[in-house]
Amino acid sequence: MSAATGAGDVTTTGAARAETASAGADSGTFATATAPPAGPYPTAAADIAGLAASADHPIRILVVDDHPIVLDGVTLTLRDASWLYVAGYARTGRAAIAAVDTLRPDMVLLDLRLPDMLGPEVVRALRHRDPHLKIVLFTAYPDHAALDPALAAGADGALVKDSERHELVDAIRRVMAGERVVAIANEGALLDRRLREQGLARREYEILRRVAMGETNPEIAAALGLTKNTVKTYLQRVMEKLGAHNRVEAISRANQLGIL
Fold it and tell me: Rounded to whole angstroms, how far apart are CA atoms 151 and 123?
């Protein structure tokens, strides 16, 4: 398998796998289904790695996380479950979207904190690409403010990264069977609590979230049924509460606080 320019082209044939394995670090060396990847991990344009498909056609899982060690852990955790297979990984939201088209996974384990996109934004994009795709949020921050919006955007479940092996395997089985599994306490109160801590109202949060997604004031106003001046006033309040001088600083501060 090889990762090429752009989002990356993934090859799953045995011949290509052997060719990649002998190509060395420059082209990327990826593991087979029986072992976690030993690195080096692809970067920049080559930020998707596809792993070879199993002859038994188990449930194919795409891991989306910007920390390669997470792939190691998930692969080790799932390797004894013959019906599960880590089909590949992506380090960014955009790479994940491209990988869904290339690898055709059955399920995505998605980290909430990615370097290029908000968790809810990734969920919506993945759901648009494949309405039947199962999406499970896999996070180290069970109180992250983006959890509720990501679930509302269409995620099928949520787990913390320190879940026991049997908990992860069982959650995957149940989600694939059609259940919604949220193995995180106080699901509905997470966002409200974090916003209260920062003195932010729900409307202020919604506008900040849309700004972080690249929407302009007129676009936000149209989407929420507000005037442009009202949106501007809300943003000024948000910046004051976060101690920010502009939009970029507000988004950065919100990310640091776990609000976005």
Answer: 8
